[in-house]
Amino acid sequence: MTLLNVERVSKSFAGVTVLREVSFDIQAGEVLALVGENGAGKSTVLSLITGLLTPDSGTIRYDGEPVRAWSPHRARAAGVASVHQELSLNPHQSVAENVFLGAWPSRYGLVRQGDLVARARPLLERVGLDVDPRTPAGRLPLGAQQLVELAKALTADPRLLILDEATSALDDDQVRAVFRVVDDLRERGRSVVIVSHRMGELLTVSDRLTVLKDGEVMATRRRDETDHDDLVRLMVGRELSDLFPAKAAPDSPQADPVLRAAGLSIPGACAGVDLELRPGRIIGLGGLQGQGQREVLRALFGLRHHSGQTEVDGRPRRLASPREAIRRGIAYVPEDRKTEGLHVVRSVRANLALPSLRVLAPARALTTVSRRRENELVEELIRRMQVKTASPAQEVRRLSGGNQQKVALAKWLPARPRVLLLAEPTRGIDVGTKREIYHLLRELADEGMAVLVTSGDTMELVGLCDEVLVMYEGAVVERLAGAELTEERLVHASVVGHSTAEETSRA
Ligand SMILES: Nc1ncnc2c1ncn2[C@@H]1O[C@H](COP(=O)(O)OP(=O)(O)OP(=O)(O)O)[C@@H](O)[C@H]1O
Ligand SMILES: [Mg+2]
């Protein structure tokens, strides 16, 4: 039985066509994946299904009937639930309150906290989340917040669940929990539409995959008649080779560290972390989600109060504020671009030009940035990062998720930082652009930059980094480089919390 039919649907924004005669269908009890590059139109299609947007032409049929006066409210009432790329939780309310937002169990209109907490527990368990339902949602790491969103979507027992990059902030264990939920929905005849840039995951969980490119459907394939390379070819329109660039020669003489930390500690987050960042090297911070990786980056950028020693160019330097960090040549691209990395209501141009104002301005006339110089710079960054935007004047929040991420990274480049700290640099980014970013980071390293990245993607850490430090409960438990840097060793240390060598010596 067909649950949903999207028939020749088109959509434009301000004269720019974003979807062109898009057609696909979803059966009851089916999991359909939508894949495509950043800006291909995936989220836009989903907004049409959830009633957030209305198509310019074409028809959407739900349960055999063309939807009329469709709206988020009607879609929800008809059993459509969704988890988005962007989180919608209220950070100050408890997990339980967030899960039942709008559907609180009440008696005589009063919210009963005890009920709420008791009813939240099984839902949280279902999504594999082991947290106290009374915790304020804002205190949870990003991945856990995404799972709370999922629990919230499940409260109404949806007929169609939409997951738009809902797994992007999750570690492998959490992704498996989500896929158990998906499998369970399928078994009960429910349908799921899933969008993700992690193709491996999609090839495991979905029944069929529809590929979008520049707003058009390129193909719909059954899972057993396609593979990774086939999908990438359809998405990108060409073969994609050498995803990862060559690494720094392992035996090349190493430059002195530009940034060194010894015994870096933050109560409750990390303890005794030693690391050295050298020009020309890309260092990774791996481990399961939330083992202190993010806190280390934030400390080095002066965002977290920390103890221990930090040295820049061999001299002790306090990194007590982002201002000081930036003055020492340290740049930071955070994982939560919406709240930390970007001014989303400002234009692409303003975001790209901000950190460079000092560079652009003649020494003593900070206020007279040449408009022409700024425009050149912005155009150049948009080209280099292949940011898909109608114009530099477009507001950042109107960009697709992956294109926002590109802006968050691009804005630092003209300032030529000496140390680049990146949290999850390719989250939500399509495979073609991932390749660009990997090659760009290596280029920057070759030009003398020291790079530190955190990533939940083991393949990325192994493929990109010269050395990976594995964190477990706030401590570095393993350092892998050269032939030892394999996905297997990395996953092992992440899960058990100590190195393979240690294990052998214990046995
Ligand atoms: N409200 C809007 N106003 C103007 N342009 C928009 C709006 N919403 C989306 N777009 C444009 O439509 C195109 C498709 O965006 P969409 O968010 O659907 O991409 P996507 O496939 O989800 O990409 P990503 O993988 O990066 O999330 C983009 O070029 C985007 O800038
Ligand atoms: Mg999107």
UniProtKB/TrEMBL annotation:
Gene Ontology MF annotations: ATP binding; ATP hydrolysis activity
Annotated SMART domains: AAA
PROSITE patterns listed in its UniProt record: ABC_TRANSPORTER_1, ABC_TRANSPORTER_2
A Pfam family reported for this protein in Swiss-Prot or TrEMBL: ABC_tran
UniProt keyword annotations, A-Z: ATP-binding, Nucleotide-binding, Repeat, Transport
Residue stretches in coiled coil: none
InterPro entries, A to Z: AAA+_ATPase (IPR003593), ABC_carbohydrate_import_ATPase (IPR050107), ABC_transporter-like_ATP-bd (IPR003439), ABC_transporter-like_CS (IPR017871), P-loop_NTPase (IPR027417)
Domain ABC transporter span(s) in chain numbering: 4-239, 253-498
Record flagged with keyword Cytoplasm: no
Descriptive protein name: Ribose import ATP-binding protein RbsA
Lineage, uppermost ranks: Bacteria, Bacillati, Actinomycetota, Actinomycetes, Streptosporangiales
